[in-house]
Amino acid sequence: MEEEILSYETASLFNRSFEEEITDAEETALLDRANALINTFGWKKVFNSWNNYLHHQCLTPESAINFANWFWFYGGHEHPIPNPYHFIAYFYYRIDYAIQKYDISDILDSLATSILPKAGHREADLYLNPYYMPESDPQIRAEVEKLKKQNS
Q: Which pTM does this prediction carry?
């Protein structure tokens, strides 16, 4: 039952276009739902549901980018992420490093430079390494290669 609720709520939060205009009231309601989910089930279970959605529902570059934007909006980057390199790499895998084509360097840079330092990966800390670029990070690249092999 718990898993069904989490799956339903996750789909409800992420199965919408980030480009769609929403009112301030709708924005607040979405944030409240995401926070209520985390408060009710705990971050670990919520992250597992969100990550499961990412890997099973976001199979195109556009859907992965959409997820990245909503993930940031819901504050997912403020919580600990298990296997953060793998999580970040999934986005690069889906877009095949076509950052300019999808005009998304800001969201992926923001996710990487927020999530990785919190997980103890100082090389991604822009205060210590102002020239860090996630798309050239060897650990992210290695995870992308693993994903390619897994999904070929």
A: 0.93
